[in-house]
Write a structure and sequence with these properties.
alpha+beta; 21% strand; 324 residues; Uridine Diphospho-n-acetylenolpyruvylglucosamine Reductase, domain 2; five-stranded antiparallel sheet; four-stranded antiparallel sheet; Uridine Diphospho-n-acetylenolpyruvylglucosamine Reductase, domain 3; 3 domains; Enolase-like, domain 1
Amino acid sequence: MKLSAFQYHAPTSLSGCARLLQSYGEEAVLAAGGTELFVRMKLGLVKKAHLVSVSEIKGIDAVSVDKKGALILGAGATVSALTNSSIVRKNSPALAQAAALVATTQIRNMATLGGNILQETRCFYYNRSAAWRKAVPACFKRGGDVCHVVPKGKKCFAVYQGDLAPLLIVLGSTATVFRNGAQEELALERLFTGDGKSPFTQGDDLVLTRVHVPPMEKGAHAAYRKYRLRSGMDFPLAGVAIMIRKKAAVIEDLKVCLTGVASAPIVVSKASELAQGKNLTAELVAKIADAAFRAAQPVGNVESSPSHRRAMVRLMAEEILAAI
């Protein structure tokens, strides 16, 4: 496998980056660390004449904290930077721990926050070589009209496997994007469409610039756990992020978000409803874990069976809450 020919662009400003993306349109692709993009390019899944890198944009990799204690994370910050940053470890230890679970050290040194959030959906029938793909009809994600995993399905079920988005969502994070010559801020979960074929809400010239993580309130705890076959490198086959805030023994707020089980991160609203105003008893833990289990509806398009991935969602939710 080898990369197809492309022209490399490294603009030094957001406006220049957006202009290039808009100018070249469908012939351009945005790149950061490239750890996921270049693999798809080598497989022939992405064929673009122009690669627009964000690496030279000033401040795109900055990690800081504002006067209110909120984390301001540049989308170009490497995953290793999030793991090792004293600022992140102090203000959001759960995020540093989640970042440490991403892939391997070598990949974390290259991969970026923005790339992990805006990671393409995956499927057995999509992430294959060109020679292998010739053996089966094109699926929805490759421009066809069939889903090989759900034969009667009318949409693409490719799965989202980002590690950082679910935790950032339960922490109430917002994303700053540059689009149409202006910056706008939106809840992080609004970046996702839920469609495996086109998983992100974005125009041709949209650039994710930073993520704002509000400070943890008093009595709040957060954690992320993932299930994977090889602990050293794999994407999450299922992942659970939980944030819980208590006053005395009473739960004031609880948020649960899943990854690796659908085409977008799944917020388990039922879990929040069950927990509000209650004590965190063993019985409630079981009910919250069951709500997460029911919200997870994976299909057989990545390693491990759908039933086992659902079971692991329940187990990981129970483990996180039991630790709290």
